[in-house]
Amino acid sequence: MSTYLWRKRKHFGRLAFSLSAVLTLLLYFSSTLLGAKLLGQPLENRYSQQPYAAQVIVVLGGGSVGSVPDGTERGGLMSAGAARLLTAARLAKQHSLPVLISGGQVFSDGASEALVAERILLQLGLPQEQIIVETQARTTKENAAYSAALCRERGYKNVLLLTSALHMPRSMQFFERYLGEQGIKVVAYPCDYTLNPQGKFNPRWLVPQLQAFDINCMALHEYVGMAGAFLQR
Fold first, then answer.
1. What is the pTM of this model?
2. 3-state helix, strand, coil in the chain (%, to 5)
């Protein structure tokens, strides 16, 4: 596009060429691992995994697929949701903690994230009495609001919040607000990392790749969401 406009610059004008050049550079930047690290690393490094004497693990849904086969059942979790749930299952077994799964049916052709996750936890050997499901939330804000209500009802005062590292800063904005209003302390436990925090620069970072573009899109989504959450205060 930029080459075409460069050849036709006299016809289209310098403004069109300049705009095309900027958009091309932005597209290139957003497709590189260098761009992903510059945008995503500050989000993923905001919080770290720390041991904490929690009373419950709250794990946020990360997307589900409604009618896909899953053994003898139907409905599965997308990669982020599966990674979060696996971490939650490990922590729950290690520390004998209940798991509160928050996530409803976001789309009409989907499935309730919490119900799919509950089935998987049971199949992994976690007892039913250790699992709490919240099936109404469709957004991060609703995750926080509905989880706060359940924690208040059950008398939980110390919560370990578990979600993807990229998603954690925005989640903490809402959870600290809604659970804080109930006098409940929230500690972050990020997982599902997408970037290596100790990776050293190499030329591969400058090669456009689909994975980097995906990370950049998710990071931009989080920044926009954080700005929206701030304005909703």
1. 0.87
2. 55, 15, 30
